[in-house]
Amino acid sequence: MSAPTRQFHRLSIGQNMPETRAQSSRTARAAGRPDPSDDDEKFLGEESEGEEEEEEESSGEEVGGGRSTISARSGITYDVSNLDDETGASAVVGLKSQFDVVNCRASDSGYDFQLLDRPQVHIGSNSTTCTCSTFQTRPQAACQHIFWVLDQLHSSFLSNPSTARAALSRNGRPQVPERIEELLKDVPLETVAERLNWQFLKAEGNGKLHGMTRTEKVRDVLSAFSPKILPEDFRRDLVEVTTTKLTPEQCVVQGDFEATMFRLAAHDDSVFSSLCKAMPSGACAAIYFDKIQEQSRRLLTDFDRYCATGELPTDPSCPGGVNVDEVVTHLRSAVSRIQYNISTRSHGYEGAANALVLILESIAARNKDPFIGNNWGRKSFHGEDEDQRNLYHLLIGSEDMELKPDDDAFVVSALETLPPSALYPRVNELRNTLGKIEVNRAPKNYILRLGALIRSIEAAGATGAGSSATGSGQKRPATGNSGGYSYSKRSR
């Protein structure tokens, strides 16, 4: 892919961008102009003093009247001289502003980006639209939201956005060699969303999208302020339907501040926006997985103490702790919750990996009768045999158990949904755990699946492929010089 040329830099709306360097050269010769490929390097790396002064004088001061440039928050410098005054004003607002993306998704018709204050930008192969009032009253030109989304997407493919330059079209698209739809074919939106810290909604087999509803997001944020309560357990009496908007006055619940805040955040965009800024989705994800990990650790500690001494848990919020069936149920539930939240969140994967590895390590080390050597004489919970109170046997199994490839493998199935980058820091613990379950004669397929997972993590780490947060998208190699559009992941 060729780098942008001086001619490309000054494209006007009425011009068609040459598809290739050769075509650009032929066009220049036919018009009696110098071949623009001769001074590519000059445009990319060094501009004349006169050009620099011209840009400094016109940088963002006037839009639509003459040559003018805008330096966007992403770092890219855009030539907006082809835009009329109204469209140029939208470009200035969009490129200089910061919007929050609630979620994004890929669909058959293109890509959708839901912004925090309710406008939704759609990028399709034939059109780019927004649901905001500005675009609805003037659909022939891009609004500030379209300019911003396209700038963010293109900047995510640049190794150094601050050195990149492009002209802007009236539809908000930078005039670059490859449209964003083409770039997203090689690097999926899910990968780009992770780079930009946007929540990506995954589609299930039935077409339903994974992700959080507005009320689920509110529950997630509010529960994050509690040291122990998970979103699923937070105020189950609070159920809001947001199809009918309530006024702030209607959201008030006398004598219940928490319920009032819940309803306000569910119905009032400004309150919801403020809460999300105070507790971003990345922080919510980290807190969630930390809580799950701590709950599981405390549960096993209380269980061991009870089996050894008969001492009951003192924390009333601690689930289970005195009955092997309750412990097994809680641990299975914890792993299921982690796996579900991996699919609904675009952050916190390392926290999820830490929690899962801790649970797996803990169970791999408990291939024993928990009542052996206790000092209070307890022999069983309710008359079960040794295997029926052995956590390792109940959760991982033994070699005489058949585990089919499609069967759920405790913890391993959840680990398989994580990207290699999140698992690589814990690969040594996983390797040690594999050694333990091999000695303890776990089901053959369980050993094979964990071994295959470890090899894939090590291979990804060795090749650098594990740097992608989703593990599914390959990065486009950089081409050209640093001043142009080199499509590789930028540092953040």
Count of strand segments: 7
Supply the number of structural domains: 4
| H/E element order | HHHHEEHEEEEHHEHHHHHHHHHHHHH
Average pLDDT rating: 79
β-sheet strand percentage: 5-15%
What would the principal axes of the Cα set say about the shape?
A: globular
The Rg value, from CA coordinates, equals 28 Å
Largest sheet: 4 strands, antiparallel
The spatial strand order of the largest sheet comes to: 3-4-5-6
Low-confidence segments, ≥5 residues, pLDDT <50?
1-67, 465-492
Structural class: mainly alpha
N-end to C-end Cα span: 24 Å
Number of helices: 20
State the share of residues found in helices, binned by percent.
Answer: 40-55%
GO molecular function: zinc ion binding
Keywords: Metal-binding, Zinc, Zinc-finger
Organism: Penicillium malachiteum
InterPro entries: Znf_SWIM
Structure report:
The chain has 492 residues and is mostly helical. It has four domains: 46 residues, no CATH class; 149 residues, no CATH class; 65 residues, no CATH class; 172 residues, no CATH class. Helices cover 44% and strands 6% of the residues. The chain is built from 20 helices and seven strands. The strands form two sheets. A four-stranded antiparallel sheet has the order 3-4-5-6. A three-stranded mixed sheet has the order 1-2-7, covered by helices on one side. Strand 5 and strand 6 form a beta hairpin. The longest helix is centred in the middle third of the chain and has 29 residues. The radius of gyration is 28 Å and the shape is globular. The chain starts with 5 loop residues before the first helix and ends in a 29-residue tail after the last helix.
